[in-house]
Inverse folding.
């Protein structure tokens, strides 16, 4: 019996040492925020050496630039005009591209947010909640809209169904100054909220001039929206719990005909669209299992062919990201 006990003890010690060795050699090089889908967290980033697999930043930017330029040339040849801004970031490596082009060549400048502004309002309200200044379970009421309901429900509905009236309600409740202060705190230095958006029953040019003194649109850049999506992804601005809530809400939006359709709904996408005259925007965090990335496409004075362009560019970038995956064979 003593011999058997001794053998069992030696076996247990050996198994324990072996398991410890495996665990020590399988620790991921970088931890993902816990609100990212579980199948992303389970990656062993160190397994194939991400740093060795990732291309240099210069190569990445050149590759994306070539894809973007080629599609702009094809678009121009088809007779389409307008300005298009593109931001792409590979989240594991940090490789980034930002460019603005038109049918006339290189361009620059700000872009109208259209309904992507609703994500800015949500960010501001959730930031207040993260500081304990706002209770998301509280009731919000608006006489102009005739609405009374839970604050958090209205935020999520505003994002998933892109409800103009709810964004306008939040702007009246919290104020332009308060929202812009949060945007500055978040590092969105080229983004400004100026007024409510139309169409909406309680928002007309006359009432907007009366309330805000301007009809100028809310403005931003694709780069700023890319930064915003990364803050949500990493949980660095709102904290993990509220970041996860916002991330999940953006995965359940009902308008998915641009970037999600462009990648054939292959993987989950957390995104927000925006549409106005000459404006077709989509800001997305694409949950590619082995290589998640951000892609933001915004347009200005582009009145035709924009949805097809976004789908084509999204597909091209997505295929490129799959090839760059640390697990690509």
């Amino acid at each position: 019996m003593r011999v058997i006990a001794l053998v069992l003890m030696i076996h247990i010690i050996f198994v324990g040492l072996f398991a410890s060795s495996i665990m020590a050699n399988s620790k991921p090089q970088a931890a993902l925020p816990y609100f990212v889908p579980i199948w992303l967290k389970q990656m062993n980033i160190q397994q194939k050496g991400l740093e060795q697999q990732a291309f240099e930043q210069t190569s990445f930017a050149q590759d994306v630039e070539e894809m973007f330029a080629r599609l702009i040339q094809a678009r121009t040849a088809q007779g389409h005009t307008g300005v298009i801004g593109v931001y792409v970031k590979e989240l594991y490596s940090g490789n980034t591209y930002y460019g603005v082009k038109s049918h006339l060549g290189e361009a620059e400048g700000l872009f109208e947010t259209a309904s992507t502004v609703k994500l800015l309002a949500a960010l501001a309200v959730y930031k207040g909640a993260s500081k304990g200044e706002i209770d998301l379970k509280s009731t919000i009421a608006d006489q102009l809209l005739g609405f009374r309901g839970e604050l958090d429900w209205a935020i999520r509905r505003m994002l998933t169904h892109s409800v103009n009236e709810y964004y306008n309600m939040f702007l009246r409740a919290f104020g332009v100054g308060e929202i812009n202060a949060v945007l500055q705190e978040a590092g969105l230095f080229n983004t400004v909220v100026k007024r409510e958006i139309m169409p909406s029953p309680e928002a007309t040019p006359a009432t907007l001039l009366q309330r805000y003194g301007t009809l100028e649109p809310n403005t931003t850049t694709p780069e700023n929206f890319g930064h915003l999506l990364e803050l949500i992804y990493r949980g660095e601005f709102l904290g993990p719990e509220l970041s996860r809530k916002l991330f999940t809400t953006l995965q359940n939006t009902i308008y998915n005909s641009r970037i999600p359709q462009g990648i054939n709904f292959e993987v989950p996408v957390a995104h927000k669209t925006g549409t106005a005259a000459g404006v077709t925007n989509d800001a997305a965090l694409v949950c590619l299992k082995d290589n998640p990335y951000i892609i933001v496409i915004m347009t200005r004075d582009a009145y035709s062919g924009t949805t097809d362009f976004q789908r084509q560019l999204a597909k091209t970038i997505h295929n490129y990201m799959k090839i760059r995956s640390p697990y690509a064979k």
Observations:
- The first helix runs from residue 2 to 25.
- The chain has 13 helices and ten strands.
